[in-house]
């Protein structure tokens, strides 16, 4: 179990930001070669990203490399660079069809890439939303290496001509569709970014919103977003205590054969036990992580 609460984008050509990322409490870092890098800087960004991943200075953070689409002049070189240094995952941008994942996986498998290398998929086009189920359905085949969806809400707003704001009224159906598609096939889902990184209250509200929708975490663009994001996507003290109570209650010998019991006046079923065990497991990983002697906690 890997918490993916805070997933920070860092432009691949920004050496200073890459260094800074090594000191931040983000669960994952996405080193970006795509949208945040100008065409004139693509090669430089690739070189810097490769050097940073090769150095392995990111501690327990997951490291993900976002490549350019395979059909662009940089896509193939990005993929091969990734296979050379083996980040935890390659983030495939603008995934619109299952073939975008199976095609990438074929290239990766043909090159005999390290079996630990995973694929994450950006869901950020209208076609990607329509095909979210077919894309997610790639996951059960281990050859496809797919483990996680990332929402690209800026691209979705651009392509759809919808407006953001108003509690993401226009975007919620797409987020929810993507979420259930992902869950149907056991994938994690990370929410899109909040552009106004000076607006702490607005950011927190959007984190809460994403968590309510079922997101595992949120993609971030600025260091200031990491701590509040971790806070909101971690199980609260109250949730952990409640989870422990449920686990304890089902451990009582008299409840061993019961499907449904009462805990503090509330109906609790075995499905709640499954949820409680997940909360307890995530809380344990987070607690263990915060004890690691790293500058970021
Ligand atoms: N990751 C790590 N460090 C970052 C960072 C990031 N995403 N964004 C900023 N920083 C660092 C800066 O380098 C600076 O470090 P310093 O104290 O060592 O000088 C510090 O945080 C403060 O940065 P600040 O001056 O507030 O921001 P900025 O003007 O340098 O950068 C952005 C603003 C938006 C350009 C920058 O945050 C950014 O590039 N974010 C990521 C964008 C991205 O990847 N988009 C693609 C996906 S949507
Ligand atoms: Mg995008």
Model description:
It is a single chain. 45% of the residues lie in helices and 16% in strands. It has 297 residues and is α/β, with parallel strands linked by helices. It folds into two domains: 228 residues, Phosphoenolpyruvate-binding domains (TIM Barrel), CATH 3.20.20; 60 residues, no CATH class. The strands form two sheets. Strands 1-2-3-4-5-6-7-8 form an eight-stranded parallel beta barrel, surrounded by six helices. A two-stranded antiparallel ribbon has the order 9-10. Strand 4, helix 4 and strand 5 form a beta-alpha-beta unit. Helix 9 runs parallel beside helix 10. The structure holds coenzyme A and magnesium ion. Magnesium ion binds next to loops.
Search tags:
binds magnesium ion; 12 helices; binds coenzyme A; 2 domains; eight-stranded parallel beta barrel; 297 residues; TIM Barrel; alpha/beta; single chain; two-stranded antiparallel sheet
CATH uppermost class of the largest domain: Alpha Beta
With strands numbered from the N-terminus, the spatial order across the biggest sheet is: 1-2-3-4-5-6-7-8
CATH fold topology of the largest domain: TIM Barrel
Low-confidence stretches: none
Number of extended strands: 10
What's the SSE blueprint?
Layout: E1 6-11, H1 15-21, E2 28-32, H2 42-55, E3 62-66, H3 75-85, E4 89-92, H4 98-110, E5 118-123, H5 126-130, H6 132-136, E6 146-151, H7 153-160, H8 172-184, E7 188-191, H9 200-213, E8 217-220, H10 226-233, H11 237-251, E9 260-263, E10 266-269, H12 270-291
Parallel strand pairs: 1-2, 1-8, 2-3, 3-4, 4-5, 5-6, 6-7, 7-8
Antiparallel strand pairs: 9-10
This protein binds coenzyme A and magnesium ion.
The site of magnesium ion has 6 residues, from loops.
């Amino acid at each position: 179990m890997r918490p993916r609460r805070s997933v920070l984008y860092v432009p691949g050509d920004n050496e200073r930001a890459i260094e800074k990322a090594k000191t931040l409490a983000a669960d994952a870092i996405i080193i970006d070669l795509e949208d945040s890098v100008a065409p004139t800087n693509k090669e430089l960004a690739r070189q810097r990203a490769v050097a940073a991943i090769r150095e392995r200075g990111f501690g327990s953070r997951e490291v993900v490399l976002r490549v350019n689409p395979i059909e662009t002049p940089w896509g193939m070189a990005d993929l091969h660079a990734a296979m050379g240094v083996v980040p935890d995952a390659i983030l495939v941008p603008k995934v619109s069809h299952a073939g975008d994942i199976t095609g990438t996986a074929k290239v990766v498998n043909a090159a005999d890439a390290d079996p630990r290398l995973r694929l994450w998929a950006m869901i950020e086009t209208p076609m990607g939303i329509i095909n979210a189920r077919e894309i997610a359905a790639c996951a059960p085949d281990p050859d496809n290496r797919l483990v996680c969806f990332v929402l690209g809400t800026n691209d979705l707003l651009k392509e759809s001509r919808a407006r953001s704001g108003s509690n993401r009224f226009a975007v919620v159906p797409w987020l929810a569709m993507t979420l259930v598609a992902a869950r149907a096939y056991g994938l994690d889902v990370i929410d899109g970014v909040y552009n106004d990184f000076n607006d702490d209250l607005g950011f927190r509200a959007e984190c809460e919103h994403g968590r309510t929708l079922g997101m595992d975490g949120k993609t971030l663009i600025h260091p200031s977003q990491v701590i509040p994001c971790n806070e909101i996507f971690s199980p609260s003290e109250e949730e952990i205590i409640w989870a422990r109570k449920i686990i304890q209650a089902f451990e009582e010998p008299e409840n061993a054969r019961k499907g449904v019991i009462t805990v503090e006046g509330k109906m609790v079923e075995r499905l709640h036990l499954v949820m409680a065990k997940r909360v307890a497991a995530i809380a344990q990983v987070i607690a263990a992580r915060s004890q690691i002697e790293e500058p970021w906690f």
